């Protein structure tokens, strides 16, 4: 049983689902329309009241989660927490409230998860499709074939920010809609060519806004009853006739959505016009369903992150033999060091596979280039926090340790860094790790024992050990080397 919590710009939502009969069945849902994006002040900070509302919401969600026996929980935050300047201050409080790590995911990762959710529900492996998800603060557009994603883009335009920008006082006019639609088109016009759109592609709308618009059109007999430009134009004219949000009376349009529906409608019309889309089919799936599918795949060893690492290494021409040698040796040392948990093992392995990606930039300081690339790349399946963790490991693979000294307070992380550094040294000295000939411990200091024949056969390792002693001494850690007969 899995839980997905989505900290969106418009609403916080929760899904609890169970994998059965090849699909995921949702057994519990919750929604809290907190309008987080509206809580951004003129300086781009979330107000104190907005932060309190968010914390209170997650406290309520935590009470729901307690009632279920869950195999995994994933909490993801989207556009508003991506752009809020003080999100780093709010994040620890949100984590305390919900009781789980909160991951601020990139727009591209959000799009990938949305597509996974839609693909899992549609189960059409050969269907050419586009998925559009209009959220509170951003809109994701994804092109794919069956379960395979071909292209994903995230645009910083959504229901809340568009409504605040063009309908700030609740007044609904034709001129405001015209400006809002043109604004939406301007966001996407340079990206249309990336999607190779054609008439044979089915287009799906996965957001709550899309489903609300579709429901309103159907219940009120607008246009042809589908999400088409003619139906959307009919809905827009009805809203203009009402003249103000407070006067809207339409079946299917809930009062809590009325304030942001104009922004979402303008985005949808603008995108359909720019892409030349005739119809959009709403689908009851999206980010939360995608998160649960991702958790299910991870539980069955089909981890998307493995493929991301392979693709990234291939794209930047990493020497596969060297990379795998370092990765296997690093894991070997990590096991010898006996960490309290294996929580860093996967990131150590993946970081080792990517430790030389920076060579594509320059052999000088390649570890710094590698660290920067991993921290800032689009790596599907990875969260920003996970990429930062691997980036720090990679940065610490050689040289001065002061640059990562704060992270080394975590003993298991320090063991992962030491394991990677030793693996890189062994690779440069052309040594294959033999656990019977090398022993290493890290407690208050580092104690390494090595057989004399290793030193004789690979004399450069002695030089590396001497440098390593200096680097660890720089942060106040003794590194003792004992040569055994």
UniProtKB/TrEMBL annotation:
Keyword Cytoplasm in record: no
> Which GO molecular function terms does the record list?
pyrophosphatase activity
Alphabetical list of Pfam families matching this protein? Ppx-GppA, Ppx-GppA_III
Instruction: Please give the superkingdom of this protein's source.
Output: Bacteria
All copies of the Ppx/GppA phosphatase N-terminal domain together span: 18-297
Q: Which InterPro entries does the protein's record reference?
A: ATPase_NBD (IPR043129), GppA/Ppx_hydrolase (IPR050273), Ppx_GppA_C (IPR048950), Ppx_GppA_N (IPR003695), PyroPPase_GppA_Ppx (IPR030673)
User: Which keywords annotate this record?
Assistant: Hydrolase
UniProt keyword annotation of Ribosomal protein present: no
Gene3D superfamilies membership: 3.30.420.40, Exopolyphosphatase. Domain 2, Hypothetical protein af1432
Q: Which residues form the Ppx/GppA phosphatase C-terminal domain?
A: 305-459
**Name this polypeptide is given:** Exopolyphosphatase
List the source organism: Herbaspirillum robiniae
């Amino acid at each position: 049983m899995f839980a997905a919590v989505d900290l969106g710009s418009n609403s916080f939502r929760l899904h609890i689902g169970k994998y059965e009969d090849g699909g995921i069945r949702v057994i519990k849902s919750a929604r809290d329309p907190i309008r987080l994006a509206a809580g951004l002040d003129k300086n781009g900070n979330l107000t104190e009241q907005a932060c309190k509302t968010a914390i209170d919401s997650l406290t309520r969600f935590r009470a729901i989660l307690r009632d279920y026996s869950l195999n995994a929980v994933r909490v993801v935050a989207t556009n508003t927490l991506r752009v809020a300047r003080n999100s780093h201050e709010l994040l620890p409080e949100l984590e305390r409230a919900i009781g789980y790590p909160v991951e601020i995911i990139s727009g591209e990762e959000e799009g990938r998860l949305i597509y996974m959710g839609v693909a899992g529900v549609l189960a059409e492996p050969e269907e050419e499709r586009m998925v559009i998800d209009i959220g509170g603060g951003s809109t994701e557009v994804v092109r794919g074939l069956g379960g395979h994603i071909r292209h994903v883009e995230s645009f910083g335009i959504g229901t809340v920010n568009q409504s605040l920008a063009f309908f700030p006082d609740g007044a609904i006019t034709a001129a405001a809609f015209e400006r809002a639609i043109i604004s939406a088109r301007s966001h996407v016009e340079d990206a249309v060519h990336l999607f190779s759109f054609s008439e044979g592609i089915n287009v799906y709308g996965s957001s709550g806004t899309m489903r609300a618009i579709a429901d309103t059109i159907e219940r009120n007999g607008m246009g042809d009853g589908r999400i088409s430009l003619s139906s959307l134009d009919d809905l827009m004219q009805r809203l203009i006739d009402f003249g103000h949000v407070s006067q809207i009376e339409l079946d299917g349009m809930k009062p809590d959505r009325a304030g942001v529906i104009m922004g979402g409608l303008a985005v949808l019309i603008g995108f359909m016009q720019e892409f030349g889309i005739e119809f959009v089919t709403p689908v009851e799936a999206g980010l939360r369903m995608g998160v649960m599918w991702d958790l299910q795949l991870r539980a069955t060893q089909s981890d998307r992150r493995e493929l991301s690492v392979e693709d990234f290494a291939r794209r930047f021409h990493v020497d596969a033999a060297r990379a795998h040698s370092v990765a296997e040796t690093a894991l070997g040392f990590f096991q010898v060091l006996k960490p309290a948990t294996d929580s860093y093992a996967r990131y150590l392995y993946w970081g080792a596979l990517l430790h030389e990606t920076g060579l594509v930039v320059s052999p000088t300081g390649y570890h710094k280039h590698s660290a920067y690339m991993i921290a800032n790349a689009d790596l599907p399946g990875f969260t920003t926090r996970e990429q930062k963790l691997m980036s720090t490991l990679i940065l610490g693979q050689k040289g001065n340790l002061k640059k990562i000294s704060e992270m080394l307070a975590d003993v298991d992380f320090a063991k992962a860094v030491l394991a990677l550094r030793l693996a890189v040294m062994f690779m440069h000295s052309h040594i294959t790790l033999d656990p019977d000939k090398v022993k290493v411990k890290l407690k208050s200091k580092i104690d390494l024992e090595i057989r004399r024949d290793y030193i004789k056969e690979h004399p450069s390792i002695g030089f590396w050990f001497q440098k390593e002693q200096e680097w660890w001494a720089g942060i106040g850690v003794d590194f003792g080397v004992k040569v055994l007969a």
